[in-house]
Write a structure and sequence with these properties.
6 helices, 2 domains, 188 residues
Length: 188
């Protein structure tokens, strides 16, 4: 066990060294390509787009590995549930379908709200250059409104996902409670 844990520590450390360099290179190339394609854009817009491109790569680095791990765990979990009882596996697939449906229902709204936030963010440098407090406060209020709408949408989305998972857990408890008694030596 000590050897396995030591190997995991080494792999995790080496992976972190590699990831930092790899994603740093992606940020540089992505930013360079963005600047090359946006030669005619105002500096304020270009600055905002560079920041957003870095955030996108940060998202890829920080969240996509977790999502991929979750997908693998989900597939394995569904397979295990199917091997135990078909109804449990079907309940898991039903919950997955409900979650995908909830995401699909919110996709366009997230896309629109993120577009509005990004458009407002692109104006920030030019607003700062004006050095007018009223303009800056108005800009910050618009950013806040966009962030609140995004957050509220996320809250409703996650509420829907948690409701689907709650139904799944309750359904599994009901299925398990109504199964005929089994033992490890004599499975149902």
């Amino acid at each position: 066990m000590a050897a396995i844990l030591s190997a995991l520590i080494v792999v995790a450390t080496v992976r972190r060294f590699y990831d930092t360099r790899c994603y740093g290179t992606i940020r540089v190339r992505f930013g360079g390509e963005l600047v090359r394609r946006s030669q005619d854009a105002p500096v304020s817009r270009l600055n905002a787009r560079l920041d957003m491109s870095r955030e996108m790569v940060d998202f890829l680095e920080g969240h996509v590995p977790g999502v991929l791990t979750g997908v693998v765990q989900l597939v394995v979990s569904i397979a295990v549930l199917f091997s135990f009882d078909r109804r449990l596996g079907l309940a898991a697939l039903g919950a997955l379908g409900a979650i995908v449906l909830v995401y699909a229902l919110f996709h366009r709204r997230f896309y629109r709200l993120n577009g509005e936030l990004n458009a407002q963010t692109e104006l920030q440098v030019s607003i700062l250059e004006q050095r007018r407090l009223e303009s800056l406060v108005g800009h910050l209020r618009k950013l806040r409104r966009s962030e609140v709408r995004l957050s509220d949408t996320e809250a409703v989305l996650y509420g829907g996902i948690f409701a689907a998972m709650f139904a799944f857990v309750l359904g599994n408890v009901w299925i398990a409670a109504t199964m005929p008694a089994g033992t490890p030596a004599h499975p149902v």
